[in-house]
């Protein structure tokens, strides 16, 4: 049921032990949303905890500097940036049916929570969390500003994607007023790569294939390559942006082999193809320019499924 941010703020005020669920393969937005809300709830004298089915990626370690989760029995479960219960993964998935508040910006949100707030115009869930914290009358600290800024720059690709709005910039400006560490966060997330990361990129570029008269570019990231490089799976996120950088490519597809088999597919589009529609055909979803899905098939079969789905964008 769609409700107002005021109603969500009121509910959070009433409860004491609040569990915050983030999605699996966590990105800057789900973690930034989760930690910003955590610090705000601590400020309100609550107990809170951020749960993720995967380990928190090292590069986002700065979000957790003052994070001290306590063991408690939750009396309220909130999900942030989670479009579908399936995306919670194993650990957080145990609480899927207890979600009372779902806060998100994915137009494809399928969570049936008693209190749902989805703003598809928000470039990041962090924009919504920013408003929620203000609604609750909590002063945004520098620490919360760093968390919120992280979600905004990761989901907008440093304010470059089409989801960026004047409001995005206004909120970012407010976060700068609050002394967020924008320079070091940007350098850490966008201008720093490990040797392992570069090695993986080199091999991945070597394997690039083109389809649909060079309008589709596809790369595969084999699990063996990732393991040998010793990198964090979150460090692979930048790879999905590469195929789309090629002139003339409309659909960039990145297929990451998962440790448990099958592929996690990221689709990025440039101007007219709908990434969310392409992934939707395979049970996934996301945004118009960036979406994802999982395909539990061997490589060639998985490739054919995603290429067929992408081909429909050119009909
Ligand atoms: Mn997001």
What is the topology?
Elements: H1 5-14, E1 17-21, H2 28-43, E2 47-51, E3 76-80, H3 89-93, E4 99-104, E5 115-118, H4 125-135, H5 142-156, H6 166-177, H7 182-190, H8 195-206, E6 209-211, E7 216-221, H9 223-229, E8 251-257, E9 263-269, H10 275-280, E10 285-286, E11 290-295, H11 299-311
Parallel strand pairs: 1-2, 1-3, 3-4, 4-5, 7-8
Antiparallel strand pairs: 6-7, 8-9, 9-11, 10-11
Helix pairs in contact: 1-4, 2-4, 2-5, 4-5, 5-6, 5-7, 8-9
Bound molecules: manganese (II) ion.
Residues 29, 81, 105, 124-125, 155 line the site of manganese (II) ion (MN).
What does this structure look like?
- With 315 residues, the chain is an alpha/beta fold.
- Helices cover 37% and strands 18% of the residues.
- The chain contains eleven helices and eleven strands.
- The strands form two sheets. Strands 6-7-8-9-11-10 form a six-stranded mixed β-sheet, sandwiched between helices. It has a five-stranded parallel β-sheet with strand order 2-1-3-4-5, covered by helices on one side.
- The chain is globular.
- Residues 29, 81, 105, 124-125, 155 line the site of manganese (II) ion.
The low-confidence parts are none
Structural class: alpha/beta
Order of helices and strands: HEHEEHEEHHHHHEEHEEHEEH
Bound molecules: manganese (II) ion
Largest sheet: 6 strands, mixed
Helix content: 25-40%
Shape: globular
How many whole angstroms does the radius of gyration measure?
19 Å
Count of DSSP-assigned helices: 11
Strand percentage lies at 15-25%
- Span between termini: 37 Å
Strand numbers in spatial order across the main sheet: 6-7-8-9-11-10
* DSSP summary, beta strand count: 11
The overall average pLDDT, rounded, is 95
Q: What oligomerization state is this entry in?
A: single chain
């Amino acid at each position: 049921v769609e409700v107002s941010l005021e109603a969500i703020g009121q509910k959070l005020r009433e409860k004491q032990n609040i569990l915050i669920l983030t999605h699996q393969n966590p990105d800057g937005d789900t973690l930034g949303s989760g930690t910003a809300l955590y610090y705000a709830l601590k400020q309100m004298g609550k107990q809170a905890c951020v749960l993720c089915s995967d380990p928190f990626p090292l590069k986002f370690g700065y979000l957790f500097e003052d994070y001290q989760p306590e063991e408690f029995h939750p009396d309220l479960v909130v999900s942030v940036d989670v479009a579908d219960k399936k995306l919670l993964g194993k650990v957080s998935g145990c609480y899927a049916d207890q979600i009372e508040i779902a806060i998100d910006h994915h137009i494809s949100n399928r969570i049936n929570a008693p209190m749902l707030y989805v703003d598809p115009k928000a470039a990041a869930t962090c924009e919504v969390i920013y408003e929620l914290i203000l609604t609750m009358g909590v002063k945004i600290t520098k620490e919360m500003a760093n968390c919120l800024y992280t979600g905004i720059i990761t989901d907008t690709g440093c304010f470059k994607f089409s989801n960026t709005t004047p409001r995005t910039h206004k909120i970012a400006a407010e976060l700068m007023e609050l002394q967020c560490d924008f320079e070091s966060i940007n350098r850490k997330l966008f201008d720093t790569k490990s040797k392992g990361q570069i090695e993986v990129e080199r091999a991945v570029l070597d394997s690039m294939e083109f389809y649909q008269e060079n309008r589709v570019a596809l790369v595969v990231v084999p699990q063996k390559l990732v393991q040998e490089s010793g990198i964090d799976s979150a460090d692979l996120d930048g790879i999905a942006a590469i195929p789309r950088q090629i002139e003339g490519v409309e659909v960039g597809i990145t297929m990451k082999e998962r440790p448990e088999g099958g592929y996690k597919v990221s689709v990025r589009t440039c101007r007219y193809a709908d990434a969310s529609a392409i992934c939707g055909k395979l049970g996934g979803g996301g945004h118009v320019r960036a979406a994802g899905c999982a395909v539990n098939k061997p490589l060639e079969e998985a490739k054919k499924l995603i290429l067929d789905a992408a081909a429909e964008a050119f009909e």
